[in-house]
Amino acid sequence: MFLGTYEPKLDEKGRVILPAKFREELSTGLVLTRGQERCIYVFSAREFEQINEKIRQAPVTSKQARDYMRVFLSGASAETPDKQHRITVPATLRSYAGLGRDLTVIGAGSRVEIWDATAWQTYLAEQEAAFADTAEEVIPGLF
Questions:
Q1: Cβ-count burial of 24 within 10 angstroms (0-12 exposed, 13-18 middle, 19+ buried)?
Q2: DSSP alpha helices (H): ranges in the chain?
Q3: Among 21, 94, 97, 107, which residue carries the largest CB count within 10 Å?
Q4: Which family would the database say this protein is a member of (predicted)?
Q5: Position 142 confidence tier, pLDDT thresholds 50, 70, 90
Q6: CA 28, CA 47: separation in Å to the nearest integer?
Q7: What is the 8-class DSSP label of residue 37?
Q8: Rounded to the nearest 10 degrees, what angle do helices 45-56 and 63-74 cross at?
């Protein structure tokens, strides 16, 4: 499970060093793709295979399913971390997420998310009130 918040830098070649706590699970390969709210989702290869299998089960007759599948899978890029634990974020994904040099990398349970640091701070500030007001009906039995 991926947890925590980290603030690595994007280098001039579009690479980022994976946080130490994420390295073991991602060491054998990972997939980056477009995430919602203009971030980049990072899945272990194993987790991405499971997601892809669920996507494959969506009805081809559903326009909404086709649209989601196209956006999600067309942005996907399989990567393997190098010996310095760096991964290259493809230019199309860097552009999609508006990544600058300063990043915020968060653990989001089954995935990692890569955000532009300013975009993350804006998102977090906007969501704080809703987070504080979240009722039990949103996630039954949580509290």
A1: exposed
A2: 20-26, 45-56, 63-74, 91-97, 117-133
A3: 97
A4: Belongs to the MraZ family.
A5: low
A6: 12
A7: G
A8: 160
d(CA 52, CA 14) in angstroms, rounded, equals 26
Spatial contact of 101 and 10, defined as CB atoms under 8 Å apart: yes
Residue of 42, 44, 28 lying closest to 97 (CA atoms): 42
Cα torsion angle, 76, 80, 84, 85, sign = positive
Partners of residue 106 on adjacent β-strands: 5, 113
Cα 132 to the center of its chain, rounded Å: 23
Question: What does the alpha-carbon distance between residue 71 and residue 73 come to, in Å, rounded to a whole number?
Answer: 6
Q: What average pLDDT does the chain have?
A: 94
List the structure tokens of 14.
């579009």
- Indicate the pTM of the whole model: 0.91
Span 40-64, mean pLDDT?
95
How many angstroms from the chain centroid is the CA of residue 58? Answer: 22
